[in-house]
Specification:
The chain is mainly β. It is built from two helices and twelve strands, in the order H-H-E-E-E-E-E-E-E-E-E-E-E-E. It has helices spanning 3-17, 31-42; strands at 49-54, 66-72, 81-92, 96-112, 127-133, 152-153, 168-169, 179-186, 189-197, 206-211, 216-222, 226-230. Strands 1, 2, 3, 4 and 5 form a five-stranded antiparallel β-sheet that branches. A five-stranded mixed beta barrel has the order 8-9-10-11-12. It has a two-stranded antiparallel ribbon with strand order 6-7. The longest helix is centred in the first third of the chain and has 15 residues, at 3-17.
Length: 231
């Protein structure tokens, strides 16, 4: 958009927002400020610090005169990153337009303080808290170091990269083919035998086992390559 069209678009936006209904605020001296407040209220539940940037309307729009303009959030629109809000005339002409907005959300999250390899356990020295832009991340960023306990990386991670939940997994307590100890527990007794795991399982997950006697059983995976059978 060239300078002339940009000025035309901003003039059109100013005329429209000058008729805004229900968003005026004592601290908002300009119509754009009033609309920014509207978006900020609509995003009040987002985590972290929110920045709102109001875009410009298409300079080719030809709209009828309007006494009041009402902002609204279109169905299915998420106010996150690049989005749109609607402006509709509620007094005078009948029209509705969409205005581009950008919502940027910042907060504290963990980033790698050094390169991390595949299937690597992570210590406190490997990460640091930093302010990041959540709206640039495709997945859920990790902010609590305790969420990394007992987990290993699922990929290589570069220094300075934001740590996301999908970058980590809990390694299986038991792997397919592992020799395991099958422990039968009941009221007042505890019996164990040996067997071989038929699949992977994290601690607390069910896993099938073939005992040395050839029986196929399903129990609960425990640490130390133990399969618990409750009787």
């Amino acid at each position: 958009m060239n300078l002339r069209n940009l000025l035309k678009s901003r003039l059109l936006l100013g005329l429209l927002l000058g008729a805004l209904a229900g968003v005026a605020h004592a601290g908002a001296g300009e119509p754009v400020d009033a609309l920014k407040l509207y978006v900020e209220k609509a995003t009040a539940g987002l985590p972290g610090r929110v920045e709102v940037n109001i875009g410009t309307l298409d300079d080719r729009l030809k709209l009828g005169p309007c006494g009041r303009v009402e902002p609204y959030i279109p169905a299915g629109v998420r106010l996150w990153g690049k989005a749109q809000i609607g402006l509709r005339c509620v007094e005078g002409s009948h029209w509705s337009v969409f205005l581009p907005v950008e919502i940027r959300v910042f907060g504290q999250a963990l980033v790698a303080s050094r390169p991390l390899g595949f299937a690597q356990s992570v210590s406190a020295d490997d990460v640091r808290l930093d302010e990041v832009e959540f709206t640039k991340e495709m997945g859920m960023a990790i902010s609590d170091p305790h969420q990394l306990e007992g987990k290993t990386t699922t990929r290589q991670i570069a220094a300075g990269q934001v740590l996301r939940q999908d970058y980590f997994r809990t390694p299986p307590a038991i792997g397919a083919g592992d020799s395991v100890r099958v422990v039968y527990t009941g009221d007042g007794f505890n019996i164990s035998t040996s067997g071989r795991a038929m699949g992977n399982a994290a601690e607390g997950q069910p896993v099938r086992v073939q005992t040395d006697g050839g029986r196929i059983l399903q129990g609960i995976a425990r640490a130390g390559r133990v399969v618990e059978m409750r009787l």
